[in-house]
Amino acid sequence: MPHTSQSPTVLVAGATGFLGSEICRQLKAKNKIVKGLVRSTSDPSKLAQLKEWGVETIEGDLKDRASLDHALRGVSAVISTVSSTLSRQEGDSIQTVDDEGQSSLIETAVAAGVSQFVYVSFCSISSPFPLQTAKRKVEQQLAESGLEYTILQPTFFMDIWLSPALGFDFPNAKATIYGEGGNRISWIAIKDVAAFAVASLDHPAAKNQMIELGGPEALSPLEVVRIFEASQGKNFELQFVPEEAISAQKESAPDPLSESFAALMLEVARGSEIDMQHTLDAFAMQLTSVQDYAKKVRVVAI
């Protein structure tokens, strides 16, 4: 019996990003038919990697509704990881991408007869800021769209927040600590968030659910530093950024993105613990620990 037309196709929006590409890799490992939504400006090496995995890439942009109509033809499920925070092109902003762009993707999915939509958002944060406002608006729209949905709300990604890009410069044994460094965070690995996104397509416990995601244990930034010091056999040089300074940075931010980054730093200072017991009872996953991550990057750093 021919296999092609009846097999469900999954579109991954944000396919060249850290999370989107890992979702594509895991989907292909499960023999899913995968389309990756990419842009004409996407990194050629990332496109080549997707093609090597067997992902069909299709050009489109959340700011261009016609391109989404084209990309969603024949698609049965969408996983969206798109955000303007890390990869920005001309015209990208929280307003045009995280708000209006995601909204347009949901509307297009409804019009195209897509049956399922997995949206990667982030965990609830106490103080309001533009990125969170956009995410919550999109979550509400998705929940009311009539699509079968899963909203994933991960806490801080260890691969990003515990990396040199955001001041955790482990190759040089230096770390910027937001606040006093004593409040705990349930750091989560990108590959584990990807695994939940992939599992959500077929798991009854994910149907029409909002799921908070964290790692296997909550650790303070100072506890994380001690893990890295033990792993690398070096003492870290620490630079503390007081909470008051981050609050002032948030208040005086020149644009919505700067304000949002300051708000996220503030949340790192205040802590973000997620109890994963109930979720792990349903999904039975082995989560990556900060110790695992420290061992992995130690090999890279040497």
UniProtKB/TrEMBL annotation:
The keyword Cell membrane does not apply. SUPFAM superfamilies: NAD(P)-binding Rossmann-fold domains. One of its GO terms (cellular component) is photosystem II. GO terms for biological process: photosynthesis. It holds the Pfam family NmrA. Gene3D superfamilies: NAD(P)-binding Rossmann-like Domain. Residues 8-293 form the NmrA-like domain. Keywords: Photosynthesis, Photosystem II. This is SDR family oxidoreductase.
